Amino acid sequence: MRALITGITGQDGSYLTEFLLSKGYEVFGVVRRASTESFERIDHIKDKITLLQADLLDQLSLISVVEESKPDEIYNLAAQSFVPTSWTQPVLTGEFNALGVTKVLEAIRLVNRKIKFYQASSSEMFGKVRETPQTEATPLYPRSPYGVAKVYGHWITINYRESYDIFATSGILFNHESPRRGLEFVTRKITNGVARIKLGLDDNLALGNLDAKRDWGYAGDYVKAMWLMLQQDKPDDFVISTGETHSVKEFVEEAFSIADLDWKKYVTKDPRFMRPAEVDFLVGDSSKAKKILGWEPEYDFKGLVKLMVEADIKLLGEKR
Ligand code: NAP
Ligand code: G4F
């Protein structure tokens, strides 16, 4: 089997690549040209995969990489994925996260309609939640330009499924984290902050809204669900979540306690990290994925926080 992954240099791209290699896949990854190469997350597997240059902004480059790699499956993970940036760069976010999806689907339509397609949709689409817990049938109410663009990506995926009979699936994934998470996302910001404080490199961690609640899972568990979705007889939409919700404050308490630190001595609230419109509460119901895909997460909240805190303490310790 051959797979093409957009966003291969990202958190999910790196875990999915490892998983597909373990299943015997030939893996091709889309990377965009940059003046300096930073493939940190896939450095350890770079010699086992083929990297091809393309950009979600460039239709012809996407057609070329699909022609060249001849994939059985395409995983569209590339995106501008940081929600706050979607307010400062709303047009670019729309180009990547909304129209970019159409460009990948057009490449499939033009090159080979038998290619199976996975779209990285998001629980951010639920935004100001209309029901709890959120399922595949919950109405969408996005609260950021990022969320709005992801709604477009979700619906264009369904539209190509219905218009052209393409095997196009949409995975509505709730927040998933890992030691490879970008440093600006709240979980990694906290675990990196804890490690820095523990090692005496810092004495403060400035955060925004501590009351927001998220359904946090482990990225390594979630990429398996992506693959399972493409192994089914028919394309569909699936919510992937743990079913547990915790506040940012609870994440902070757990992370600091793992390092034997009192969080109240170090954490401050900084209005710079508040958002123009917030998603206050998310919790997913992934019964459909459990029943049809047989998917279950292995990591729970405490296991995830521990994994991330320990990894950051080790990483910073090694760098010293
Ligand atoms: P990430 O770590 O930010 O990775 C994003 C990837 O997209 C990077 O490889 C990046 O490449 C690539 N990319 C960005 N713009 C591109 C463009 N114009 N052309 C080609 N590649 C481009 O994100 P992630 O956490 O792995 O998330 C993967 C996907 O799942 C994203 O679509 C995200 O929106 C979605 N999602 C994530 C979560 C979550 O909790 N992690 C939840 C739901 C949905 P560079 O290395 O060149 O920047
Ligand atoms: O970690 P976050 O930045 O993730 P957010 O906005 O939930 O988005 C992530 O999950 C989505 C799935 O629901 C993905 F689609 C998306 O690509 C991304 O991966 O923020 C989580 C919460 C927010 O409510 C935010 O207001 O944490 C709150 N928060 C509080 N202090 C903070 C901070 N967020 C960040 N990034 N930095 C802070 O200092």
Descriptive account of the structure:
This protein has helices spanning 11-22, 59-69, 85-88, 90-111, 145-164, 186-198, 219-230, 248-258, 287-293, 301-319, and strands at residues 2-6, 26-31, 50-53, 73-76, 116-122, 168-173, 176-177, 205-207, 213-214, 217-218, 237-240, 246-247, 267-269. The relative contact order is 0.13. The protein contains ten helices and 13 strands. The chain folds into two domains: 2-176 and 216-240, Rossmann fold, CATH 3.40.50; 182-215 and 244-282 and 299-319, UDP-galactose 4-epimerase, domain 1. The longest helix is centred in the first third of the chain and has 22 residues, at 90-111. Strands 3-2-1-4-5-6-11 form a seven-stranded parallel beta sheet, sandwiched between helices. Strands 7-10 form a two-stranded parallel ribbon. Bound molecules: NADP nicotinamide-adenine-dinucleotide phosphate (NAP) and ligand G4F. Ligand G4F is lined by residues 81, 83, 122-124, 174-175, 184-187, 189, 207-209, 212, 214, 248, 273, 275, 278-279.
